[in-house]
Specification:
single chain; alpha+beta; 60s Ribosomal Protein L30, Chain: A; six-stranded mixed β-sheet; 9 strands
């Protein structure tokens, strides 16, 4: 995927440095949890960040106005979001991580943590990508909508995450022994859509599998 990194010019009244690279096929909104220090709304431990670039504030190429100073540099991770036509599966790639989000309806019967027969092929595709990226750390997180009690959602989301983990482990075979898994359920926390509509609740009922991309430096970076 071609990427472009651009250094913006600075205005005479406000010095601001932005390194912005964005390739976006389709994006969804993320809502931050009240107790979540990460404004992206991602569950703890599910994202990584890139260090900001070193910039020489005395470089003549910056052409700062008299008395102007540089604001702290920030890096926005490159993001590509691809969702299949049915909306049942969503893949998000950043320059750090790969995340698969599978809607609960395509994996499980209603209010169940028993995998559907058709779930195997979808989970196998994720296992193949884990192998291609040579990942050693994999996160499997379950989520529900806000219907029902929080406690019930917490139990169901954890059981669903565990079921996907077990299927992933089987699909990975002997390589599973080289991996470290984090398996968690978050109930209705960290929604990616509005729970006020069934369309939004459907997106929020999901299991996400994420892992660092190319962790050993030999993974497929295309």
């Amino acid at each position: 995927m071609p990427l472009t990194r651009t250094l913006a010019t600075l205005s005479t009244t406000t010095a601001a440095l932005i390194t912005l690279t964005l390739t976006l096929t389709l994006s969804g909104s993320g809502l931050a949890h009240a107790d979540d220090p990460d404004p992206s709304g991602a569950p703890p431990g599910s994202t990584t960040t890139s260090p900001p670039p070193d910039v020489d504030s005395h470089s003549p190429g910056l052409k700062l106005a008299d008395g102007a100073t540089l604001a702290p540099a920030k890096v926005l991770d490159i993001k590509s979001v691809v969702e299949d036509l049915s909306g049942d599966e969503r893949r998000v790639d950043t320059n750090q991580d790969v995340t698969f989000a599978l809607q609960a309806e395509v994996l499980f019967p209603k209010d169940s943590a028993k995998l559907n027969p058709g779930a195997k092929s979808r989970i196998q595709a994720i296992a193949d990508e884990i192998k291609a990226q040579n990942a050693t750390n994999v996160r499997v997180f379950g989520f529900t909508d806000d219907l029902g009690t929080y406690a019930h959602g917490l139990t169901l989301s954890k059981k669903r995450a565990e079921a996907v983990h077990d299927a992933l482990a089987a699909a990975l075979g002997s390589q599973e022994q080289e991996l470290t898994f984090a398996v968690r359920g978050y109930s209705e926390d960290y929604p990616i859509a509005d729970n006020s509509s069934e369309e939004g609740r459907k997106k929020n009922r999901r299991v996400e599998v994420s892992f660092p991309r190319g962790e050993r430096g030999t993974g497929d970076q295309s």
